[in-house]
Amino acid sequence: MKLTYHGQSTVTIETNGQHIVIDPFFSGNDQAMTKPEDVKADFILLTHAHADHMLDAEAIAKATGATIVATHELATYLSFKGLNVHPMNLGGQFEFPFGKVKMTQAFHSSSIIDEEKQTITYMGMPAGFLLTIEDKVIYHAGDTALFGDMALYGAHYDIDLAFLPIGDNYTMGPEDALVAADMLQAKAVVPVHYDTFDLIKQDAEAFCANLEAQGQTGHALKIDALIEL
Ligand code: NI
Ligand code: MN
To answer: Has the keyword Hydrolase been applied to this entry (predicted)?
Structure first.
């Protein structure tokens, strides 16, 4: 399978002719090099409702007919817009045509903010995903603080690749992400959710060097860089 990092938390996966998009944020990201209209999708996985994770979800779903996988509240909200959805909730897993998806907890918030109307609509819990695709295990943490149950994922899953936020301020920073990587015992880590805005500027190369120092492997991927698993 091919995994491509598009900046912020956006990851696309191509496996056996299926296209999966996690947290599509292209049009609002100055650093993104892919246009939402060029994104292929059979499934769109959303960790939570913040704009930097789902800004382009509706447009891509409309253009492709992709099914959106999200927590019950967010999925239902998007179904009201006529989109195909598959609601899940924390701890649940489901076998999709491309592989298995387990929705994991994340410590963050999840809401849709309408600046014009000055309203905030809560969308249930934020989440992460443990994906089993082609016998490989991929963990996308979503936006989250460090939490101890990551050790459970590490003990019960043989994680090949983990996407962990390092931006700090809104999520874990690099120091906590190092602890997370250790608990997850991930064979490789890709830092995400950094450098998109001034508030989350980080040195991803330094983070990967620190991973190396604790005996783990990190890949500070450039935008649109690809990893094969
Ligand atoms: Ni967020
Ligand atoms: Mn975010």
So the answer is: yes
- Which residues crowd ion ligand 1, with CB under 5 Å? 50, 143
Q: For residue range 141-170, what is the model confidence (pLDDT) as tens digits?
A: 999 999 999 999 999 999 999 999 999 999
Looking at the domain that runs over 2-228, which CATH code has it been given? 3.60.15.10
* pLDDT recorded at residue 122: 98
Give how far Cα 220 sits from Cα of 42, 135, 158, 191, Å. Answer: 27, 24, 21, 6
Ligand 1 centre to CA of 171 (Å) is 8
Compute the distance between CA of residue 172 and CA of residue 41 in angstroms, rounded to an integer: 29
Residues 6+ apart with CB under 8 A from 214: 178, 181, 182
Q: Global pTM?
A: 0.98
CA of 155 to the centre of ligand 2 (A): 27
For residue 224, the model assigns a pLDDT of 97
Q: How far is the CA of 122 from the centre of ligand 1 (A)?
A: 12
